Amino acid sequence: MKYIAFLLLTLTTFFANAQQFTISGLVKFNAAPATGATVSLQPLNRQASCAPDGIFVFEALPPGSYEIIANYGGAKKYRQQVNLENQNVILHIVLTSSDATLNEITVTDKNEQVAGNLRQVEGMAIYAGKKTEVININNINANLATNNSRQVYSRIAGLNIWEYDGGGLQLGIGGRGLNPSRVSNFNTRQNGYDISADALGYPESYYTPPIEAVDKIEIIRGAASLQYGTQFGGLINFQLKKGIVDKPISFLSRQTGGSFGFYNSFNSLGGTFKKLNYYTYYQYKKGDSWRPNSHFEQHAAYAHLDYALTQKLKVTGEYTYMHYLAQQPGGLTDADFAADASQSVRARNWFRVNWNLASLSFDYRFSDRTKINWRSYALRAGREALGILSYINRPDPGGERDLLADTYKNYGSEIRLLHRYDLVKGQPSTFLAGVRLYRGLTLRHQGDADASTGPKFNFVPTEPNTSGYRFPGTNAAVFAENIFQLNDKWSITPGVRLEYISTKANGYYYQTMRFVPDVKVKEQKENNRSFALAGIGSSYDLRKGVELYANISQNYRSINFNDLRVVNANARVDSLLKDEMGYTADGGIRGKLNDWLYYDVSLFYLRYNDRIGSVFTKDQDNMVYRLRTNVADSRNAGFESLIEADLLKAITGGRSRYKFSVYTNFSAIDARYIQTEESAIQGKRVEFVPPTLFRTGLSFGDNRFNLTYQYSYVARQYSDATNAEFTPTAVDGTVPGYQVMDFSASYQWKWLGIFGSVNNLANAKYFTRRADGYPGPGIIPSDPRGYYLTLQVKF
Fold it and tell me: Which spans are transmembrane here (predicted)?
């Protein structure tokens, strides 16, 4: 049984796809397992004690050079240098009491793929039986300077992508038929902690890490609700880079110029000095876009420090800063878009974001089987939207503009305990438990502002004359999951999460009167609720490298009180709005074939009760507007697939120095409203859900150069629950299907790299969204053909 355990460990390591790696192995003394042998890992100063079967594991290691030292009784001390370079390492160590020279055996698994999936246990989390996806940024050939989402997320099935701007200031993606607005239907994190504006009251992400600083992007679908929170979409976690282990200092600089006045400067510094690992970057970008009134400028910085206080205790501190100012050209009507998509009919709209995010975490290893992580973070941030929100089919009326100003003050702390044990002899099971405490406060004010054209974010008068609110929120959660490894092939993973949520609103708004001055109305609201979420998943290894997986988990999404009193002529909110509940089920098959083919094919079903959506309606003055309300229950069912193959590796058996890879990413989704009292909605398609999404690409190159072509097709979709084809305001209507092609090329030689891309190769004219507020309202045109060139130096 001990050899079966070692084989399982070997297979798990061999097929790992994540960019944090593992050094593991089997230690023997005189042909018997060296139970209790001490294995040290330098320069990290970590230590492991061999289990009864002689196995040791060092997890979550960044690439670099390490030294393994093994000690056991009177045996000769064993030393070995190990290099981690896009690979996991497995050692078979034989200790003897003689002076004989030992032969070293190293097994490696090179990971050259862009996409993959997470292992059953990764760091301080459990992913067994879940639909997981990983994007390895180091292996992708794309326009990283602009955070081009179409290219970066090309291997993730079922994603609808909104294209806000040409600079990649904000990310807008939605999975399996959920609203893409600022990733609001995902729990969005960086290095494991929240980065959204307010995880309870306003889960939108105005900050997106520069892709040039990202090591990998982890995506876990609806089953992530048990470990990370209640969002239907699941989790997106940006794992940022760390300093290289075997160098005290390394420097990288990337300078990018492109179409429409685009310029990006990204510079990073990192390394390891004794027990200290550090990484920091600074980014500056600006551009004018291809439409008038579209200038933007952004500054971003980040610092990471982790220090091994002892062999068992490590402390990590991080700080993130981001600030940008963007002029927004506004939306267009259907007629204006058809006539000239490059025009702008708004010259006084501005948007400003300021982000300050700090985190502190402690990692402690009680033993190789038990470890704990305590992570806390604080956010001090704000965003201000200034301009004209009136219908886009009317000219700017002049005069004072509307200002919507938010301030976010959030605290969060989460502690996790992970323990491995043998339920069945030789079959390691894993238990995970955690506690999360969160306190958020959003200050929101709306009113008239300066009547000029510039970015003057001041209320006139001083007290906002539309509304002013405090939105405090409190969340406490306890969660647990357990992998029951029943045999060497089959595991079952149940889980549960207990939630307490308290959201409050305290402030005032001005009620518009028809024949008398507006009346100031004070308002207080409080909503406290407790509930439990449950789920269960299963994984079965059919054969070497082939896994069947399935999962069903409950989901929950609380209403956003801080959105109830926004005054917007294009949209209104139902005062009786309530929370949404439902569940997600998915299952599929994934794996590798002979190290040249990776695939993940799955089905999913998402049930959404009391879904909040938009209904196209009219008020008492016969004015058309969108009502945000609990429109109906809905169900989304679909098929997702990703297939990526290196054809040259298949043909030559891995003997070719070149790589010719092909991938296809296809999803088909049927999303309908069901069980509704609104006859106009019954059976209608859910908004923001293209029934077909298809992305495919080719990549050819070797270690120095790479050429990549990508084709994307997104089918026709609707922007509201009534499936309106057209409205004069352009807020509601169809989003026609579109096709886009991209081309990228790169060449790297020693310390020098040159990267180029042509986005929207065929210069397609299209749009991805209709906005009811900023940055519209109306149609937001997507970028035409653009050219970008990056020069990189690395030391």
Answer: none
